[in-house]
Write a structure and sequence with these properties.
The protein is of the alpha+beta class. It has helices at about 5-20, 25-40, 70-80, 120-150, 160-175, 190-200, 200-215, 240-255, 285-300; strands at about 40-50, 55, 85, 95-100, 105-110, 180-190, 225-230, 230-235, 270-280, 310. The protein has 9 helices and 10 strands. A hairpin with a 4-residue loop joins strand 4 and strand 5. The model has no long low-confidence stretch (mean pLDDT about 90).
């Protein structure tokens, strides 16, 4: 590839990267262009999280918890370098490319190929980094803003508006494929007393802990939301009513046993009342499904709280 041709292709790559809106778009562009422009056989991308820790990205654009082969301190050192770094021993075709952004590294790109990286290729990789760093920063900023628009800031779960949209989408999908879908609606018992006795800061701490509890005690496919106040919902795609009632009872027991440390004299324990409704058995619209689960929950409240009921 001639010098001018390579420069034109690199400029085109930079333009495509800047146009990316999601992590998946960045991955797709790199997967297509890196082998063509740099004869790369394998590559891996790390992104800098809000806490400054570098997280590896898989081919679907999702960050995975940690690298299996490189220590975090070493990754941070590589990402903070001011130029591409070729491994000195045994791997002439292995290059680490730091990706700068405005105030800190945006990430780190590892490139592997058969032949060594010569000076001209390293200079072009340096140019690539100047495109890729800002592109990643732009994608991550947009992602954080979008996440803020759909997330409840106290619990970290989906907010009610986004949850209703998810219910509509999943119900239409269930209708199309002849599947079940269920909702669990629950309300914390005596939450007002918690606020009155310990104050609203502790109340907020309880809501945060409920968000954490749901994220760690339910499957990823089950979508959790803080619906308002101390009300929460779970959307269970493909779950029958029997399955939803079983899960609600499991969550009820686990929540009652869950200790919430709020810095007081001892851990706080709280219970909840659960209502369940299912599509298509109970309701055929999102509004009706939520309404029936809510009514079932209030029947539990009226019967003494800390229980589960179907509509």
């Amino acid at each position: 590839m001639s010098g001018q041709s390579a420069e034109r292709k690199l400029l085109g790559l930079g333009q495509r990267l800047i146009a990316c809106r999601r992590r998946e778009d960045v991955v797709e562009v790199l997967a297509k262009e890196l082998p063509l422009l740099f004869a790369v056989a394998r590559w891996r991308l790390w992104l800098t999280g809000l806490d400054g820790v570098l997280l590896p990205l898989d081919t679907e654009g999702e960050a995975v918890p940690k690298s299996r082969s490189v220590e975090p301190a070493r990754l941070a050192q590589l990402a903070g370098a001011d130029r591409p770094l070729v491994e000195a021993e045994g791997s002439p075709g292995r290059c680490w490319l730091p990706l700068p952004s405005h105030d800190r590294p945006a990430g780190l790109l590892l490139l592997e190929r058969v032949e060594a990286f010569d000076a001209r290729t390293l200079a072009r990789l340096d140019d690539l980094a100047r495109f890729l760093g800002p592109a990643i920063e732009q994608v991550e900023t947009r992602s954080r803003l979008e996440q803020q628009n759909i997330t409840d800031e106290v619990s970290g779960l989906y907010n009610a508006r986004h949850f209703r949209a998810l219910v509509e989408y999943e119900m239409e999908r269930a209708r199309r494929y002849g599947q079940d879908l269920s909702i669990i609606f629950f309300d914390l018992d005596h939450f007002k007393k918690v606020n009155n006795r310990y104050g609203h800061l502790v109340g907020s701490r309880v809501l945060q802990e409920i968000g954490h509890f749901l994220r760690t005690h339910t499957r990823r496919v089950n979508l959790a939301c803080r619906y308002g106040g101390d009300e929460f919902m779970l959307l269970l795609p493909s779950a029958s009513k029997v399955g939803a009632l079983t899960l609600a009872e499991k969550l009820r027991k686990e929540l009652a046993e869950h200790a919430i440390d709020f810095g007081g004299s001892g851990p706080l324990r709280i219970t909840a009342s659960f209502g369940v409704a299912a599509f298509p058995a109970d309701a055929r619209t999102p509004e009706r499904l939520i309404q029936l689960a809510d009514r079932a929950m209030y029947r539990v409240k009226a019967a003494g709280r800390d229980g589960v009921a179907g509509c």
